[in-house]
User: Which sequence fits this backbone?
DNA sequence: CCTTTATTTCCATAATATTGGAAATATGGA
DNA sequence: TCCATATTTCCAATATTATGGAAATAAAGG
């Protein structure tokens, strides 16, 4: 991952509503939840929820699948894991962090 | 950590210049680097670097310490670790993720 | 106290993001 | 085909963020 891609992911999560949506879907597990239920649960206007779901999806943090008239959104765990790896990468220039100075 | 605090951290990192600064300081290790050297290394106007360093510090991601005429900034690893824990917390509603559906 | 160097604050400009109402689109069932 | 429901797109108002020049502050050493 490069810096640009990481900022896209971070920006997607750096917003209270979106972070709440994301965590709701992390907790919901792989099957996810339909857009309407997400909006309802978080008391959001449909347009607002849709806007944030798009942001998260475009960043690759969510997957969307159609099921009947519903669109289910679910968390993409792989993307988050890649982000976490990037954030702690190259800690202390590669020198293993001493146990007296715990780093990453 | 609550959602609000986490968005503050994420917002601080969700900007290319700031993420680059943060990673530079993660790589620099616990001793950190003086503000001027960070600005120079990243080719930033002093005011711009100062603005971003303040954002990161206010979020708690950086520590600042005066040393002579220099102000050394360094990464606060604990804050990042707390963020990582928060992001993966409560995955799949607490149900351990099956090895066939690897989550977090 | 004056000078040099390091950094920050002030400020205005420019760019980007968030919000939700209303209209458009899509899906499935009667 | 027509209707009800689910979701998205369009749009405009509002709010937030980033940038850097210039001036202010701070620290150390003559």
Assistant:
């Amino acid at each position: 991952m490069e810096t640009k891609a990481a900022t896209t992911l971070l920006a997607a999560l750096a917003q209270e509503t979106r972070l709440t949506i994301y965590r709701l879907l992390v907790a919901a597990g792989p099957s996810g939840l339909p857009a309407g239920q997400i909006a309802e649960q978080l008391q959001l206007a449909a347009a607002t929820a849709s806007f944030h779901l798009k942001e998260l999806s475009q960043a690759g943090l969510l997957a969307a699948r159609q099921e009947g008239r519903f669109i289910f959104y679910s968390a993409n765990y792989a993307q988050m894991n890649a982000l976490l790896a990037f954030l702690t990468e190259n800690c202390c220039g590669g020198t293993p962090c001493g146990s007296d100075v715990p780093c990453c």
